[in-house]
């Protein structure tokens, strides 16, 4: 009767806390638990090959006790010595039929020592820990938990205050947790103790007295010597939460900075792949962010003739062989093949160890600036003689336009040299059309006493410059004229106009409907795709509110109000609407909005992008249909059968038409699976599905309910045809078996219920059909016997 460590008797002994050994009347050890093996310093498998004479020095004490044992009355044994370690054991010997069981008595100080060691270990863990038994009573807790309790009740908590008390009643008494957290803890502890889950963790706020923050609760199940325990660990994660929030805030802020930057930003990893670009980079290069991320920068965005040279320099910089040049210029190639000259500012990114992990570059498109410089150099050799002008030039003139004073920091010529200005009239030094502007402005300023501004182009040394003049009234019919060079601003305005033109061109190439609205929600721009999708031009919808001109008239009004409310609160993502085109065609679009704000954060306009998701919605509907089909056979599954059959049953009651329910079960499915494998079983199920399709009409609802059970809901049938339908099914089974090359035959048990004006519901009908099927199965089994 020798047993190893996997025997049932050993498993029983392993649940006994005390060391135990069982041996027969000859002293041969039959089994023992782990505790006994540990105390005698021998492995269990070795002990099962020994006798008690091999284990104990003074085994005669044990043999005398065996001889004295009568009627299964326990005998106490003292000072039984172990050969391996000379330890002495005390215990109790009991007889069980022809076997003896020796149970070692443990010393109380051992238990206390183990408990003290466990308490020391728990106290070293920097989080609250409480161990509960199956009844929810506190078995042990560490000092972090005791400190928490002391904080709650504002006095020192002692060991006897909480030991063996019900955790939830005790916490409720001290008001340690709010009602919501108390209920959540109780629910999850019960799940763990009842073995519904091994470990459950969640995060929750904890607010009690001066404690306030986020905590993670981890509830785990442990089994020791047959007893189930629940270990509750509570860890303060407030700083971690705050840290994560700050990181997210920094990420959001960084992204906003990137997106509002007037410069293009590009980050490359050590392989030269693009890992980050901002909106300006996408705008200049003509790509979307998705088209650029992960792409090789050199082969995607640089002209072919410089790709390898720039790549080689980049590799040397990443490897630390070269320092990056802080400023340099080189061309990029846009998606549509245009070359743009970029002035770059470069730097590298290193990790905590100082290893280079990326490069970051910001660039300004200086293509036009360079072109203008070249054109200016070509147009006049005198360009080098033009000096930088002081921003403002001050002139004092009288009502007749005579100049009495002329002040400047660096000379900025009106038209004539400065020495020919004082005492002259505007008409003597300026072209006629500019003189007329000054005459009218002088009269208006002196008549109204208000500041008047004029702006005009003027040609100086063959180049066109722009001037802005503000006329300020002074005493004695004098006017101060403040003249400023605004040539650069004008160039910027022209550049902005060109940028706007390119932006419109780019937007018109986007395969999505783009709509711009002002702060009142009135449409001010639509792109070509919008017109193609809806049939409405900008003239048709300009000035209308939101998307009301294209919304489907039957769209839910509550949904429209929800969209408007969300847009007023901020950006909206992927909001779906039905629309109706000018030609009356329906479509479904997904709308995403973005609020455009100026430098001071004031809303300037709203951009809406609408994607035609009609095909996606149609696919979504197809996926819903797939959810009610059985993947193996292509028949309806149980869910699909119940849903369609209940609908048909309701229809039958309204129209007073009859129907029938066939419940079908494969007789030999288990035999096929066991003898030939589950792949053959799958083939058999597919064969049955084919036989059912052949036997019933396309309009009937045929389903695989699960496993080897099938059901057919035959609609619009009379009672006299039900037997005929069942015979057709049986004939098709026999014909299939006669022609089949399978190693098995298809055998089906069938139960049928005709449904006339019955008041039974579908579940009751299925149960009745199942009962008839089972009766059919028994009858056929008797026939075979």
General description of the model:
By secondary structure, the chain is α+β, with helices and mostly antiparallel strands. The protein has six domains: 8-106, PAS domain (Beta-Lactamase); 110-236, Beta-Lactamase (2-Layer Sandwich); 251-370, Beta-Lactamase (2-Layer Sandwich); 381-491, PAS domain (Beta-Lactamase), CATH 3.30.450; 510-618, PAS domain (Beta-Lactamase, 2-Layer Sandwich), CATH 3.30.450.20; 627-784, Alpha-Beta Plaits, CATH 3.30.70. The chain has 28 helices and 29 strands. The strands form six sheets. It has a five-stranded antiparallel sheet with strand order 2-1-5-4-3. Strands 7-6-10-9-8 form a five-stranded antiparallel sheet, with helices on both faces. It has a five-stranded antiparallel sheet with strand order 12-11-15-14-13. A hairpin with a 2-residue loop joins β4 and β5 (99-104). α25 (669-676) runs antiparallel to α26 (678-695) and α26 (678-695) crosses α27 (722-739). It is extended, with a radius of gyration of 46 Å. Mean pLDDT is 82; it is low at 1-15 and 379-390.
């Amino acid at each position: 009767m020798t047993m190893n460590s996997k025997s049932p008797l050993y498993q029983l002994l392993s649940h006994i806390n005390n060391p135990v050994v069982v041996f027969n009347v000859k002293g041969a050890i039959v089994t023992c638990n782990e505790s006994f093996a540990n105390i005698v310093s021998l492995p269990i498998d070795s002990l099962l090959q020994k006798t008690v004479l091999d284990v104990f020095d003074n085994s005669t004490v044990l043999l005398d006790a065996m001889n004295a044992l009568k009627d299964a009355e326990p005998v106490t044994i003292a000072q039984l010595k172990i050969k391996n370690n000379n330890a002495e054991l005390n215990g109790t010997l009991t007889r069980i039929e022809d076997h003896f069981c020796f149970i070692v008595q443990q010393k109380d100080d051992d238990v206390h020592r183990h408990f003290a060691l466990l308490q020391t270990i728990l106290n070293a863990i920097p989080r609250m820990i409480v161990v509960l038994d199956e009844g929810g009573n506190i078995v042990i807790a560490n000092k972090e938990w005791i400190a928490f309790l002391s904080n709650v009740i504002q006095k020192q908590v002692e060991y006897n205050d909480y030991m063996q008390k019900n955790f939830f009643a005790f916490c409720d008494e001290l008001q340690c947790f709010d009602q919501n957290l108390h209920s959540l803890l109780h629910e999850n502890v019960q799940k763990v103790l009842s073995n519904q889950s091994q470990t459950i963790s969640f995060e929750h706020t904890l607010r009690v007295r001066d404690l306030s923050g986020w905590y993670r609760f981890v509830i785990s199940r442990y089994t020791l010597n047959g007893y189930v325990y629940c270990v509750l660990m509570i860890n303060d994660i407030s700083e971690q939460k705050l840290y994560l929030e700050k990181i997210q805030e920094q990420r959001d802020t960084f992204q906003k900075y990137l997106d509002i930057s007037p410069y293009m930003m590009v980050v490359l990893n050590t392989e030269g792949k693009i890992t980050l670009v901002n909106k300006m980079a996408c705008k200049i290069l003509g790509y979307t962010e998705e088209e650029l991320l992960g792409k090789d920068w050199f082969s995607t965005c640089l002209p072919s003739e410089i790709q390898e040279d720039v790549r080689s320099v980049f590799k040397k910089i990443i490897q630390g062989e070269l320092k990056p040049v802080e400023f340099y210029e080189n061309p990029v190639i846009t998606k549509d093949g245009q070359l743009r000259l970029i002035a770059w500012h470069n730097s590298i990114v290193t990790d905590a160890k100082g290893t280079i992990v990326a490069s970051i570059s910001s660039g300004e498109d200086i293509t036009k600036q360079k072109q203008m410089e070249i054109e200016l150099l070509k147009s006049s050799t005198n360009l080098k003689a033009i000096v930088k002008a002081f921003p403002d030039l001050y002139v004092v003139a009288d009502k007749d336009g005579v100049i009495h004073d002329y002040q400047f920091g660096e000379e900025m010529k009106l038209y004539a040299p400065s020495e020919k200005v004082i005492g002259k009239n505007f008409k003597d030094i300026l072209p006629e059309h500019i003189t007329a502007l000054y005459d009218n402005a002088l009269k208006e300023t002196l008549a109204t006493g208000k500041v008047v501004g004029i702006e005009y182009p003027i040609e100086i040394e063959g180049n066109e410059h722009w001037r802005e003049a503000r006329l300020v009234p002074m005493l004695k019919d004098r006017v101060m004229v403040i003249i400023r060079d605004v040539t650069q601003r004008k160039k910027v305005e022209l550049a902005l106009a060109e940028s706007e033109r390119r932006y419109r061109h780019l937007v018109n190439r986007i395969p999505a409907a783009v709509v711009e609205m002002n702060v009142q929600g009135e449409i001010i721009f639509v792109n070509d795709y919008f017109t193609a999708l809806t049939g409405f031009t900008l003239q048709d919808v300009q000035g209308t509110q939101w998307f009301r001109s294209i919304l489907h008239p039957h769209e839910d009004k509550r949904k429209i109000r929800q969209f408007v409310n969300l847009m007023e609160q901020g950006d909206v993502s992927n909001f779906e609407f039905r629309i109706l085109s000018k030609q009356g065609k329906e479509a479904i679009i997904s709308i995403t909005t973005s609020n455009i704000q100026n430098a001071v954060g004031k809303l300037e306009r709203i951009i809406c992008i609408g994607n035609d998701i009609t095909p996606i919605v149609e696919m979504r509907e197809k996926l819903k249909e797939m959810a009610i089909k059985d993947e193996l056979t292509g028949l309806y599954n149980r869910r699909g059968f119940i849903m369609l059959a209940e609908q048909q049953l309701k229809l039958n009651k309204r129209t007073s038409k009859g129907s029938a329910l066939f419940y079908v079960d494969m007789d030999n499915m288990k035999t096929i699976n066991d003898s030939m494998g589950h792949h053959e079983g799958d083939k058999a199920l597919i064969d049955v599905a084919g036989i059912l399709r052949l036997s019933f009409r396309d309009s009937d609802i045929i389903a695989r309910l699960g496993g080897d059970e099938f059901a057919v809901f035959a609609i619009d049938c009379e009672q006299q045809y039900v037997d005929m339908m069942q015979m057709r099914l049986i004939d098709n089974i026999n014909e299939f078996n006669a022609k089949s090359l399978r190693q098995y035959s298809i055998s089906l048990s069938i139960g049928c219920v005709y449904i006339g004006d019955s008041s039974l519901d579908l579940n009751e009908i299925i149960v009745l059909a199942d009962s008839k099927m089972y009766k059919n199965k028994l009858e056929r089994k008797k026939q075979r016997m």
